[in-house]
Specification:
By secondary structure, this protein is of the alpha+beta class. The chain contains one helix and three strands. The protein has one domain (1-70): Double Stranded RNA Binding Domain (2-Layer Sandwich), CATH 3.30.160.
Length: 70
């Protein structure tokens, strides 16, 4: 499955979350670190859902960018 991850620049680094997996978040000093942590977080989140017998949410969130004149 491919989940959309939203990355946000913060004052001290980056944070990230998966809209389709509430509570699946990570933060780190660099984008590379937070990407690695998010991969682990998604795997752990899905494993916990399976262990609890909960359904695995289908990825539905899409992200894109739109350029406008500033």
């Amino acid at each position: 499955m491919t989940y959309t991850v939203i990355y946000e620049k913060a004052a001290t680094g980056y944070s990230a979350y998966v809209p389709d997996l509430p509570g699946c978040i990570a933060a780190a000093s660099t984008k590379e670190e937070v990407e690695s942590l998010m991969e682990e977080a998604i795997e752990m989140h899905l494993e916990a859902l399976r262990e609890d017998g909960d359904p695995i949410p289908e990825p539905t969130t899409l992200a894109g960018t739109i350029a406008v004149l500033a």
